Amino acid sequence: MADRHNRDIDRPVAPLPAPLKTNTVDAHAHLELIHNCEADSPLIKEILDEAASVGVDRIVQVGYSAQQSIWSVKCAESFPGRVLAAVALHPNEAPVVEDLEKDLSIIEELAKQPRVRAIGETGLDFFRTQPELQDKQKYSFRRHIQIAKDHNKALVIHDRDAHRAVLDTLNEVGAPAKTIFHCFSGDVEMARECIENGYILSFAGTMTFKNAPALREAVKLVPIELLLVETDSPFLAPMPNRGALNTPAQIPNTLRAMAAERGESEDYLAAAIAENAVRLFGSFN
Length: 285
What we know:
single chain; alpha/beta; TIM Barrel; 10 helices; 8 strands; 16% strand; DNA nuclease activity; DNase_TatD-rel_CS
């Protein structure tokens, strides 16, 4: 993740879109990768203020390692009413950490914190993880699922080139009541299977890309109560700013694309997604 951070932070920042008239929630962001700073830094407040200026007034800050999960909790504590935290070991981190059990213990302790509302991002990534490390990744995923269930938290799933394995794992061990596929990357058939199981599908800027017609078909199928929107900042800036540094302020571009595909007004979709986020994560206050 560090290499990705260094690459992305040098990119131009995407220009601000026209503001939404109805406030909504960015369900997945990595604010610490936009600015390498303390969790209570004025630089983080600037990001939050900029997002709020275009109608994105709440953000779920997502951890990907033990240390970054600690950062996420501090960020959520520093900005009540605006930020909640998710904590986990990213599936690409889990197989290579020095002491997996120690780091999982840290995640379990963080899960007890009141502003931690989700366990994530966890899951499976067979794109970046070599086959010989995948057993460790699968073990970590199962442990995170159990932590989410033990602490009644939402589960935020990272799934890359591992659709069947992720779904089979959830079926085998039992999914938490609130299970979210972050940056949904499946096709229509996978979307249908997720919908049948009551899983939440969160769409990122990828659904606006020209090479992603399957995602646009999928977003049409999802019942409104199973839908979220996210940036995955600082990655995956939506069109027309693909390749720029992404921030939570880019949510309006993705939400408008989703609304157009679904034949819904942006106000209706923004309000519904905000309601979904509160139902899944609880009050941001």
